[in-house]
Amino acid sequence: MGSIRFDKVDKVFGPLTGGVKALDSIDLEIAEKEFVAIVGPSGCGKTTCLRMVAGFEAPSAGVVSVNGKKVTAPGPDRAVVFQQFALFPWKTVRENIDLGLRNKGLAKSERDERIASALRLMNLESHADAFPHQLSGGMQQRVAIARAYVLDPEVLLMDEPFGALDAQTRVVMQEELVRLARVNPRTVLFITHAVEEAVYLADRVAVMTRRPGRIKEILDIRSVREAENWDRHQKIEDVMDLESFVHLRTQIWKSLREEKGPLGV
Amino acid sequence: MRDTPLSFAERIGWGALGLAVLLGTWTLLTASGLVPRPFLPTPLDVLDRMIELMSAPFAGATLPQHLASSFERYAYGVLLAALIGVPLGLLMGWFRWLDDIVTPLFDGLRFIAPIAWVPFAALWFGTGIGGPVLIIFAGAFPPCLINAYRGARFVEPRLIEAARMLGTGNLRIILEILLPAATPSIVAGLRVAAGLGWQSLVGAELIVAAAGVGFMMVQAQANVATPTVMAGMVAIGIVGMVIDVALRQGEAWLRRRRGLEA
Amino acid sequence: MMGRKGLASLTSVAAALLLWFVVTTLTGLVSPGRFPSPAEFWQSLVQIATRGYAGAPLLAHAVQSLKLVLLGFAVAVATGVPLGLWMGWSRRAEAAINPVFLLIRPIPPLAWIPLAILWLGLGDAAKIMVIWFAAFVPSVINAFAGVRAIDRPMIEAARMLGTPRWRLVREVIAPAASPMIFTGLRLSLQASWTTLVAAELVGALLGIGFVLNVAQQDIYPGMILVGMVTVGLLGWATTWLLAMAEQRALAWNMAARD
Ligand SMILES: Nc1ncnc2c1ncn2[C@@H]1O[C@H](COP(=O)(O)OP(=O)(O)OP(=O)(O)O)[C@@H](O)[C@H]1O
Ligand SMILES: [Mg+2]
Predict the structure, then answer these.
(1) What number of other Cβ atoms are within 10 A of residue A160's Cβ?
(2) CB A131 less than 6 A from any atom of ligand 1
(3) A209 Cβ inside 6 Å of ligand 1
(4) Does C12 contact B100 at a Cβ distance shorter than 8 Å?
(5) B103 shares contact with chain C (CB less than 8 Å)
(6) How many CB pairs under 8 A join B and C?
(7) How many angstroms separate the CA of residue C207 from the nearest CA in chain B?
(8) Is residue A95 part of a domain?
(9) Is residue A29 part of a domain?
(10) Is C96 within the bounds of a domain?
């Protein structure tokens, strides 16, 4: 359960007023329990891709489907971690995490259990009753992740989820995410600017072109990881030192570099 | 936000529907006799009466004459509020001691509804022009004062430091830095003041006037002349709207002149 | 405990009271026919509080006015806020209702008083109707603006979590719009008092506005001042209560500010 498919998807914003073509004929298949990362220049349409899977945005042409069914509306089977957190400021951390569980109609005891484990996982136990404004950006980001995780969704959509974290927390979260992905694999669409992050986390990395965004190439990381047995290393820095890792990273870097604008930005 | 923005045609369509429901219900209720006419006249009755009042006097004057005397009081009241409120607000924004003196008194008076000044207004200035002007003043003064004060108080401190560094005196700082910097806030305050002043005018005329649209309406109420009451409401609404549109235009013009987008 | 500001306020108010005493009592600069002296004010207060004035003691007048304001305000808020939320949520509702608003809004609430009296007489109903009209508009407009200002991702997050419609309104839309809603409530409350006083001045048999009306006809400055002070105090007290409610309801927002 949880395969995603983009079939010749175009997206034009504001078609009535001239229109900006954000995505151009995106074709991408993400298998069940596969972890795919998208990298690409800023404004190339990464967020737009993710929003279409989430059901917030409809394609202008083509079809986005999940489990072979066309996406028409948002739903808790596809949990989203937003680029801007989107926590409810009037709810405490616990209440933020609880909302999705309540919507599922779960019993109080089960909800409490799940919340407790999500809080533990994200290292938020001491802040369960704080309001989002009382937390640092990194903590808010962790709440947003916990809120999605706790639903145990088939598909997890993450839009630069570690963007606001400091370097140390980021590393911890990355290692944690890898551990989770191995223990309890699920379908993940993960957007990031950080090439290392993409290579470290993903089974496959899709590189996008500048706007209008197209899929430029897709690299298979998983076969290399398994062949070279990256998982024997616990720490991210040990993996990042491996020659096979560096090789892949450089390859993606070069690909992205070709996509920089005329001023190199 | 919920659904996508409507197209122009859809907006017009829904708007027309809304108005049609309002006017339709009104007409239906009255024309069918479900609600007796002396109680609620039809829209056409009101229109007829307005046209009639253009030339036929009621309560001593025609509608335009009533409007003219209303407007005169209104202009005096608002002008007075602006002439006292804006400078006082600017000075309070600059001189801390003045702020300390005026703010507690102002806060104390703020909770007295402007209309509660009616008895004193009548006692001190009579029911001609003075009484109503005081009440309009009471309504229009607070936004003039508050907005000038806020505008001056929250001026970018660096501007003032720069002026200080150049050896600028108090008066010059107020006139050449605080006033221009506070202008957007002051203008917004004047618009609010104009609206509240118009409100207070109506209240004042209902109670302490011997002429004006409000006076005409109370007289009509006493004579159970419902169409005249409603004609007065329409006239007040139209003039109020014209004032607001004019001030909005003025504000936009000012913004353009200062080079802050239209 | 009391800072420089508190001290300045106290001094300022004390000076104003002293000035009042000087101009009315010590020098007679202002004649008692124009403005009461402190002593006259006190006598008027004692008179209305104990023996009554304009047909009833002060407490009865105050309770009557307070009752009407709270009733009118409650009706206005209970109808205005949901309407504003709905207009903010649905573009269609906005498109249909806005023109009606544009038509009715320029008419100041006070201008409805004669019509209300014609329709409902001099009793409570007419006053509640006018207060409702006056307090309705700020409630609608601010609730509307509050919904329109909600961050889109906030709504999307709620929908992604599968939040059902009614829960969405109660737990997401309304709280997100609540700072603006409270701004509207403050304006509505203010409008309620203004309107009530005006309506009672035009015609009533009980209430603070009626006291003012009778005192004006009796040319009784001491009682006029008593009436004004009572209106001010009642207005202040209700505003304070609303501010307390706001502070409780928006605790999460306050945390954001400091
Ligand atoms: N609602 C919208 N209306 C109009 N244009 C939009 C809208 N949303 C996105 N765009 C445009 O579509 C393009 C792609 O946007 P998107 O947010 O998907 O980029 P992104 O790859 O996520 O960028 P970043 O890395 O900066 O987050 C951008 O040029 C953006 O300006
Ligand atoms: Mg993005």
Answers:
(1) 20
(2) no
(3) no
(4) yes
(5) yes
(6) 179
(7) 13
(8) no
(9) yes
(10) yes
Domain that holds residue A31: 4-37+53-86+155-228+248-257
Residue C28 inside a domain? The answer is: no
Q: Give C157→chain A minimum CA distance, Å.
A: 6
| Interface contact B59, partner C, CB < 8 A | no
| Residue C156 tokens, joined | 């999307």
- In-domain check, residue A201: yes
Higher confidence at residue B130 or residue C135? C135
Residue A24: which of A210, A216, A212, A206 has the closest Cα?
A: A212
| Domain boundaries defined on chain B | 1-37, 41-257
Range from A5-9, A185-189, A255-259, C192-196 carrying the lowest mean pLDDT: A255-259
- pLDDT of residue C254 exceeding 70, the answer is no
Question: How far apart are the C-alpha atoms of B63 and C206, rounded to whole Å?
Answer: 33
Q: Name every chain B residue with its beta carbon within 8 A of the beta carbon of C231.
A: 111-113, 116
Q: Least CB-CB distance to A100: which of C161, C175, C253?
A: C161
User: Alpha helices, DSSP H only, in B209-225?
Assistant: 213-222
Q: Is the CB of A97 under 6 A from ligand 1?
A: no
d(CA C214, CA B119): 9
Q: Is residue C251 part of a domain?
A: yes
Residue in chain C closest to A54 (alpha carbons) equals C160
Residue A243 lies in a domain: no
Residue-wise pLDDT tens digits, C17-28: 999 999 888 888
Question: Is the Cα dihedral C140, C145, C148, C151 positive or negative?
Answer: negative
Q: Is residue C176 part of a domain?
A: yes
How far does the CA of residue B44 sit from the closest CA of chain C (Å)? 16
Residue type, B198: W
Q: Is A44 in the pocket of ligand 1 (CB under 6 A)?
A: yes
| A131 with C164: Cβ contact below 8 A | no
Nearest Cα neighbor of C152 from C176, C175, C183, C170 is C176
User: Which residue of C13, C101, C102, C194 to mutate against B (max B Cβ within 10 Å)?
Assistant: C194
Best residue among A20, A207, A209, A215 to mutate for probing ligand 1's pocket (most ligand atoms within 8 Å of CB) is A20
Q: What angle do CA A35, A37, A41 make, to 5 degrees?
A: 175
What does the pLDDT look like over C33-77, one tens digit per residue? 889 999 999 999 999 999 999 999 999 999 999 999 999 999 999
Per-residue three-class SS string for B5-41 = CCCHHHHHHHHHHHHHHHHHHHHHHHHCCCCCCCCCC
Domain that holds residue C238: 37-257
Q: For the purposes of burial, counting CB atoms within 10 Å of the CB of C217, is it exposed (0-12), middle (13-18) or buried (19 or more)? A: exposed
> Structure pTM?
0.85
CATH number assigned to the domain comprising residue C64 = 1.10.3720.10
DSSP letters spanning B88-155: HHHHHHH-HHHHHHHHHHHHHHHTS-GGGGHHHHHHHHIIIIIHHHHHHHHHHHHHHHHHHHHHHHTS
Banded model confidence at residue A38, pLDDT cuts 50, 70, 90 = very high
**Among candidates B104, B115, B127, which has minimal Cα distance to B208?**
B127
CB C57 within 8 A of CB C48: yes
Tokens describing residue B185: 């806030």
**Cα distance between residue C85 and residue C97, in whole Å:** 12
Reply yes or no on domain B41-257 having CATH 1.10.3720.10. yes
Q: Does C167 touch chain A (CB under 8 A)?
A: yes
The CATH number of residue A176's host domain is 3.40.50.300
Say how many domains are in chain A. Answer: 1
- The structure tokens listed for B142 are 């607070």
Q: How many structural domains are present in chain C?
A: 1
Could you tell me the distance, in angstroms and rounded to a whole number, from the CA of residue A103 to the centre of ligand 2? 27
The answer to whether the CB atoms of A86 and C256 lie below 8 A apart is: no
- Structural contact between residues A195 and A249, judged by C-beta atoms closer than 8 angstroms: yes
Residue B191 and residue B244 in contact, taking contact as beta carbons nearer than 8 Å = yes
Local structure of C242: helix, strand or coil: helix
Task: List CB contacts of A52: < 8 A, sequence separation 6 or more.
Answer: A6, A9, A11, A58, A59, A64, A71
